[in-house]
Amino acid sequence: MKLIVIDRDCVISQHADNHEHGISGWQTHSDAIAAIAKLNQSAYHVVVTSNQPGIAKEQFDMKELNAVHNKLHRTAQALGAHIDAIFFCPHAAQDDCDCRQPKPGMLQAIGKRFDISLKYVAVVGDTLPVLQAAFAVGSVPYLLLSDTGQRTREKGGLPPSTIVMQDLHAVVESLHQREQLAAETVEAARHALHKKK
Known about the structure:
Elements: E1 2-7, H1 18-25, H2 30-41, E2 44-51, H3 53-56, H4 62-78, E3 85-89, H5 105-114, E4 122-125, H6 128-136, E5 140-144, H7 147-155, E6 163-165, H8 168-196
Parallel strand pairs: 1-2, 1-4, 2-3, 4-5, 5-6
């Protein structure tokens, strides 16, 4: 099974905060949804993650958060894309939970849900906590250079395996190239084995 994990805020959505813009003002990046559709066409399961401390701070409630996520699903479907699941942490930083990124609990829960090892799974985000959580579970952190991603790169301290990409379409292309290289390597090994026989 092929899996990719994509952070929601400022990667798929145009804004980071529900409470600041409300459900009517919450919008996706159409190019991000188009990239997700390409992933679907390549048999990837797409999971979205997000830290949502606004729940704990009572800036918005679960009803509003669910409405936003329903809107995300509907928008994706309208553009020919599919999101398999959305995972989020509802806690504030001071709650010291296991699921708030950079801790790996949310990603570990995804691994259990889909019964898959997270080693080498692409995890895409534009903030350091997302990349750190990915590194902690052996996934491949992809830093997207949104405005937030630019600031993240400038601050430094990225996990050593971080791959920097301009946008989600570039990530999709990188994954396709990685698959092609793996297929060519396997084919070359088979050819060499056949010649030995």
